[in-house]
What does this fold into?
Amino acid sequence: MANPSDSPRDPEQVGSLPDLYDAIAPHALQALWSVSLLYPEPRTDVRPWIWKWNVVRPWLLRAGELIDTTQAERRALLYANPGMPDRYATTQTLVSACQLVLPGEVARSHRHSAAALRFIMEGEGGYTVVNGEKASMQVGDFITTPNWTWHDHGNEGSAPMFWLDGLDIPLVRSLDAVFFEPYTSRRQEVVEGVGSSTHKFGMGVAPTYLKHQDPSTPLINYRYAQVRDVLGELAKSPLGDPSDDVIVEYVNPVTGGHVLPTIAAYAQLLRPGFDGQPHRHTTSAVYLVVEGEGYSIINGQRFDWSKNDVIAMPMWAWHSHHNPSGSEAVLLSYTDVPVFESLGLLRREATTAGELGWNQSVPAQESRAPARESALV
It folds into this structure.
């Protein structure tokens, strides 16, 4: 930036708007009327995208042969949205990555100001320790890591462990509020038994002498087997959401609200033959396919999905989910709903495929990023 002394000292010496713009720039001033900050509806660089498991898995296994958990703070492949190649994000507020921990390995303990969660994708014998409580991992489990909690991971099994990491790092970075601290050793001491938080707060009762003051859920692990049973029972009823079919939210048992102050998480079951009503909302989301196969149409593009595929859903994008198969499909997802609710920016709309001019024969979206962008993945 030029030195303010280089510009006209007297505004009367400026004879045109272009000259005015040049003259005020060194003073860190800008003409508000010359820029567009308000739009009729949201704009985003986030692109709808799908990462296929049969592509991601072999690359991550190869990474496991080239780098171990003593060299990498977290050995994970980032699901980098091609619309934001320089932001290391999956949506404008959320980031996803697939993490690999091999048998006998430990991902060292640390903590950070970003909140995190895990959806377990594959393997047995994995575990996490969050603030001294150990939680075992089973496929489909939803594990929470509230911000600024110590956490490390390990694999006591005989096969690789894979899971989806979800964090609000893009949001926290946009607020310049990133803090990070490594633990004094690779592992923290386990001081609570497996399932301790569930026994205290997740059984429909709670000790009167223990008060959970944190806004995040006290539960570390929400077991998929239990959630799947709930979905199955609800699916016996003809009721369901016209856009999401049978859907439940993971909730904080103390408040009844979202699991984390910045992230909400859901599980949904699409019954055979389900064709969802198109809808959109100001929130963004990341989906993981846990069971079955089907497709989603996002802004007119079709994305065919199957087990362990990951989908990025931009904000304010028209989308619908479909299960044309004869078997049930289950999707897990996490979103930035709590942020938009707290700011008074949450909006939802629904329409019909006919009004959008959609049909189910739209071509499937190619899941390969342009060459110059794919290096980030």
